[in-house]
Amino acid sequence: MTSRTEQTLTYTILGLFSLLALAPIVGIVFTALQNPDNVNAFGSFDGIHLGNFKDAWEQGNFGSYLKSSAIVTVTVVVVAGTLSILSGYAFGLMRFRGSGVLFYVFLLGLMVPMEAMIVPLYYDLRDLSLTDTYWALILPQIATSVAFGTFWMRAFFRSVPRSLVEAARIDGATSWFTLWRVLLPLAKPAVLTMTVLLFMWTWNEFLLALVMVTDEGLRTAPLGLSFFQGRNTSNLTLLAAGSVIVATPVVVVYMFLQRHFIRGMLSGAVKG
Amino acid sequence: MAEVRFIDVDKRYGGVDAVRGVSLDIADGEFMVFVGPSGSGKTTALRMLAGLESISGGQITIGDRVVNDVAPRERDIAMVFQDYALYPQMTVFDNLAFGLRRRKVPKDEIARRVARAAEALDLGRYLRRKPGQLSGGQAQRVALGRALVRDPQVFLMDEPLSNLDAKLRTQTRGEIKRLQQEVGRTTVYVTHDQVEAMTMGDRIAVMNDGVLEQVGTPEELYERPANRFVAGFIGSPAMAFFDADVVAADGGARLRCGAVDVVLPGVGGLPAEVTVGVRPECARPWEEGDGRLVGPVSGVVEYVEALGRETFVGVDAGGARVVVHCEGRAALQPGDAIEFGIAPAGLRFFACDSGLALPTAVEAAR
């Protein structure tokens, strides 16, 4: 039982941290809505001027950047998600020689930061004539995403009662059928959580796009925003509007999937 | 034809022997119960039969077919799991129909067989529900139904009652036995509960430490246990044991251990030292003139288990611990003195070193 004092203290601390987390977000939204003709101050509210978004969209070429980001992100999330489900299933529920070692090889992708790989990766992709193409953004991110996805889905499949898989086997189901028809419907929270995380990480990837592409038509949204900032150092309202445009897709995806996201993050922590 | 045969079957995990040299014939239509304590290898033996564990050595046959390398789905078996293993996202109907659909059974046949199983198990009202909306007993019946609709050659059941409360367990025990007799299929049932084994099995296979200790009917195991382990495992309350010296006496053998000093008339041929097994019903409060008892033996009450119709009293007779059976309620408290007698016909003797059964008092007297 929590006492009234403890409850008050808990809510006070949570409220304080929520304010700290929300302040910059509210500040940037308010700034993006300010009157562009006034002297701008970060976070102040002087009405709703949606024209800022139109200006930022046109001046910043965000249509092109968002298109590139969408192509890269959707491809990475779909391919890496599918591969992660398959490899997670294999590592989680199948017994095969060398699975332990192989799993740690997969984990290397989680341990080595992009900064450490970026230079050799650039030379490799250049030798394959893939720099300045979407492939230079998609393939490395599929590789790193599969490392996390495998780790994530393996943990889920390991938490599934083994008897469920065995019952399906005795009932005549193949491994393939067991995965898609018996286990995957149960894996919805885990798969959607993985989708949100991969979407977020891929969408926000900056370094890879900076190094691998020079063609403006291939620039992703975070990279485009960076160039946009370089050109508009003094126009705070326009900068804030550009930032809101770039951040919106991730927020929308999270809002749609948040119920599953929270359940997925908690699965294993709380007995169902 | 669905006899099941284990022929010198082994299972090793790394350097650990989980099952060693198990040989067993299970007749067509027989209800065979594997019983034993945790880690005795009974579930491993069942899982090898199901094809869920590989076999390290020996052979398993179902009917005339060696199934060592046959996939579980091709063995024509159905299994009921301890946790039921129902598919949570599917309705009860879909759970029951799952195995039939995988075997491409026509839709109208599936509907007919599911309806029949649902009727037999009183599941008709729950067919549209999902497992999460069922009670433990209902989920257990769905698990049974999923096995029943398949109409396999062999039913396998891995402690299917262990998650039910005591009352429901007793009720379901009878229901499983009735269904098995109705369908007449060979059934292998695993449990650690010897009461389940005794009440359900046509025959019981007692396992311990990966080895098959004894196979027989419930009566055989109770009356003629092959060794001390089986004698101690079968029967509730368990048989009490004490080591006693045996000396020849007038027309019989004299047993001595602590306060126990009794002459068994007509008994001979026992070694100088034996382990004596006394079932509770063979030790009763001493009554002068009761010719079926030898004694009296004096002891101190250690504990009292009053069950209403009968009372079991744990007694320490100078180091020999015995459970004494009293009719009705016994007005005894721990620490009280008690005199009891022993019925020689119910005593069992075991070799002190190997634990193997020696001729009983009655057999030795012949």
From TrEMBL, chain A:
One GO term of the biological process aspect: transmembrane transport
Membrane spanning stretches: 12-33, 70-94, 101-123, 135-157, 178-203, 236-257
Swiss-Prot/TrEMBL keywords: Cell membrane, Membrane, Transmembrane, Transmembrane helix, Transport
Membrane topology: Multi-pass membrane protein
Name of the molecule in the record: Raffinose/stachyose/melibiose transport system permease protein
Domain (ABC transmembrane type-1): residue spans on this chain: 66-257
CDD domains in the record: TM_PBP2
Organism phylogeny: Bacteria, Bacillati, Actinomycetota, Thermoleophilia, Solirubrobacterales
Family: Belongs to the binding-protein-dependent transport system permease family.
Alphabetized SUPFAM superfamilies for the sequence: MetI-like
Chief location of this protein within or outside the cell: membrane
GO cellular component terms, semicolon-separated: plasma membrane
From TrEMBL, chain B:
A molecular-function term among this protein's GO annotations: ABC-type transporter activity
Any GO BP annotation: carbohydrate transport
Residue runs in coiled coils: none
Pfam families: ABC_tran, TOBE_2
Cited InterPro entries: AAA+_ATPase, ABC_transporter-like_ATP-bd, ABC_transporter-like_CS, ABC_transpr_MalK-like, ABC_transpr_MalK/UgpC-like, Mo/tungstate-bd_C_term_dom, NA-bd_OB-fold, P-loop_NTPase
Domain ABC transporter residues, every copy: 4-234
Highest taxon listed in the record's lineage: Bacteria
Swiss-Prot/TrEMBL keywords: ATP-binding, Nucleotide-binding, Sugar transport, Transport
Gene Ontology CC entries for this record: ATP-binding cassette (ABC) transporter complex, substrate-binding subunit-containing
Entries under Gene3D superfamilies matching the protein: 2.40.50.100, Nucleic acid-binding proteins (2.40.50.140), P-loop containing nucleotide triphosphate hydrolases (3.40.50.300)
SMART domains: AAA
Entry-linked NCBIfam families: PRK11650.1
Protein name: ABC-type sugar transport system ATPase subunit
